[in-house]
TrEMBL record:
Gene3D superfamilies: Metalloproteases ('zincins'), catalytic domain (3.30.2010.10). Belongs to the peptidase M48 family. GO terms for cellular component: membrane. Binds 1 zinc ion per subunit. The lineage of its organism: Bacteria, Pseudomonadati, Bacteroidota, Sphingobacteriia, Sphingobacteriales. PROSITE patterns: PROKAR_LIPOPROTEIN. It comes from the Bacteria. This is M48 family metallopeptidase. One of its GO terms (molecular function) is metal ion binding. Residues 1-24 form the signal peptide. Residues 75-256 form the Peptidase M48 domain. Pfam families: Peptidase_M48. It comes from Sphingobacterium alkalisoli. InterPro entries: Mito/Outer_Membr_Metalloprot (IPR051156), Peptidase_M48 (IPR001915).
Length: 267
């Protein structure tokens, strides 16, 4: 049994290492175990279903709706140029869409494949086009950096690892079994949350670069997050139990990223 476990573990580790990829903007390593074409297709179907749902009201014909599409298209064009210059454009099958949705929620998101939704509740906090570019650049950065691919792949690897460890636990003592149960009962979820916070900071960094390439001043990002922090009601959860970094940490990190982003900024 021990020999079988060793062989299985070696095979699993080798497969995972062979499936590592590098993100386009920040250069972070991530795990890629999913079919991206299928992921994008599923995202496109989900996006269409969301837009056509009776609970969703897409705003059209207003100045804000026009602004969302204008900022989105500017960022998309800049992103496409960047990917072409890096020689990785063929790794992205994006069919961009940008829509403003009626909702009081202060939110925006970008699905794999470039499907973006901006909620009207975030427009007042955005304040101007540069603020909106901060939001959209950040969300688009998640897709460009392929964080959804990485998260899905991590879940797959986690499940495979649990199966291997489960086989090994039958040959270990009670202390080892207890450690395994603790790891997958508490450690793994917190580990995934930590990874999500790292994704958020990576998207902040990549988003600054993307908005700068699109002609928006990266310094406006700090102002946006200061407004966002002031607009929050209630007490934020402890950072280590949240998928997002604390406002103070985020602003501090943004300030450290700005010099890099300014290299891409042309008025």
């Amino acid at each position: 049994m021990k020999r079988i476990f060793n062989y299985t573990a070696i095979f699993l580790i080798g497969g995972i290492l062979a499936s590592c990829a590098t993100s386009a903007v920040t250069g972070r390593k991530y795990l890629s175990l999913v079919n991206e074409t299928q992921l994008n297709e599923q995202a496109a179907l989900a996006y269409k279903e969301f837009l056509t749902s009776s609970e969703t009201k897409v705003i059209t014909g207003t100045s804000n709706a026009t602004m969302v599409k204008r900022v989105g298209n500017s960022i998309a064009s800049a992103t496409n140029r960047f990917l072409q210059e890096r020689g990785v454009a063929d790794q992205y099958d994006f069919n961009w869409e940008f829509n403003l949705v009626q909702s009081d929620d202060v939110n925006a998101w970008c699905m794999p494949g470039g499907k973006v939704a901006v909620y009207s509740g975030i427009i007042p906090i955005a304040g101007n086009e540069a603020g909106l570019a901060t939001v959209m650049g950040h969300e688009i950065a998640h897709a460009i950096e392929k964080h959804s691919v990485a998260q899905a792949s991590n879940q797959i690897a986690l499940q495979l690892g649990a199966q291997v460890l489960g086989a090994a636990s039958s040959t270990t003592n009670n202390r080892a079994v207890s450690a395994i149960n603790q790891l997958y009962g508490i450690g793994a979820p917190l580990g995934m949350l930590k990874f999500s916070r790292n994704d958020e900071l990576a998207a902040d960094r990549a988003g600054l670069i993307i908005m700068a390439m699109a002609g928006y001043n990266p310094n406006e990002a700090v102002k946006f997050w200061e407004r966002m922090s002031s607009a929050k009601s209630g007490q934020a959860p402890a950072e280590f139990l949240s998928t997002h970094p604390s406002d103070a940490r985020r602003i501090s990190q943004l300030q450290s990223y700005i010099p890099e982003a300014m290299k891409y900024y042309k008025k």
